[in-house]
Please model this.
Amino acid sequence: MGEPESLIATGFGAERLDSSKTRSLFPSVPECAEFIRGSPLNECGLDTHWRVREDTGLRFLPFVLETVVRAVVFDGQLHFTRDAVLRTIQPGEVAVDILQAGICETDMQLCQGYMGFRGIPGHEFVGIPRTGRFAGRRVVGEINCACETCATCRGGGRNHCPTRTVVGIVNHDGAFAETLLIPERNLHPVPDSISTSEAVFTEPLAAACRIPQQISMNGQKVTVLGDGRLGNLSAQVLRHHGCQVQVVGKHPAKLDLLNRLGISTRLLSELEPDRESDIVVDCTGSPTGLSTALQLVRPCGTIVLKTTVASSQTLHMAPFVIDEITLLGSRCGPFDEALRLLQAGAIQVAPLLSASYPLEEAEQAFAHAARRDALKVVFTIQ
Ligand SMILES: [Zn+2]
Ligand SMILES: [Zn+2]
Model:
């Protein structure tokens, strides 16, 4: 069957099949399905979920082939579905079966309209690629999918590629699904000594590791605003880099957790503006975080913004000029460094795991993640 194989081997684009040939090749839906099962498409590893649908509405497409997965979808409303349609796999991508995926603040913001997101959210994951050089091994993945050819990418700034997609955030279906499609070059294998429920923290931990990449940290007096997931990880990373760290938060139990890690804490309600911090890191996820930071940072100090907030805010900018405050945006960080810290046991993530849910209980999982007492809530998928 040389001819049909070459037609289908052009990719997952079985829809590219010429209609007259398709009719003669596949006189019925079951025969088409049978052919696909035995075709080179299987090399892409997505054979098991192929669903063949007869679509009478399309004149030139007697059969539309789709891969469907169980997933959590946001289409204005967050819900679970058994048959989210996986898009066509692109050159350089692999299909990764997701083991665990974490819910983060950004996911909750997306569901409140941030980035106008529609699709499958989820960007913190551990999974197993079906094909490629990491096939069968556990991996974590960087979330920025860059073009690799523009001036920004060639200059080493692929996380800022202007045409990038971002897994689970910008034009790229994410990891709250059985299977994720992602460029193979984004993947990092997880060392055996790191458990899956520790490795699921790699992406947010890498984001925390971004801060000392951007600004010199040694011996600095740092205040981290926010006692949640990212605040906790940032505090641990900055202490590891030799800073004097204090975390300011609203939740006694979460602050207590930091105290047990040897990090000093203050309740926000008891905070007196002292303007003595060299660096203030805003991990509050709140529109008021920046104005609180301004009350704590010393003149000529730096405020690091880790928070993405869906709502816009108005702020009096004069203090930044008068006190020569540096405002530093900080986003995605180095995965290799995060994995190294996890492997060395330098960062404690196990106490941050609050609960695990199946995809089917998406609404409960998101509601739990939004609870005051929650830290990291994950989906355990397979
Ligand atoms: Zn995140
Ligand atoms: Zn680019």
In short: The pocket of zinc ion (ligand 1) is lined by residues 104, 106, 123-124, 204 (CB under 6 Å). The first strand starts at residue 50 and ends at 54. The radius of gyration is 23 Å. Residues 1-27, 40-64 have pLDDT under 50 and may be disordered.
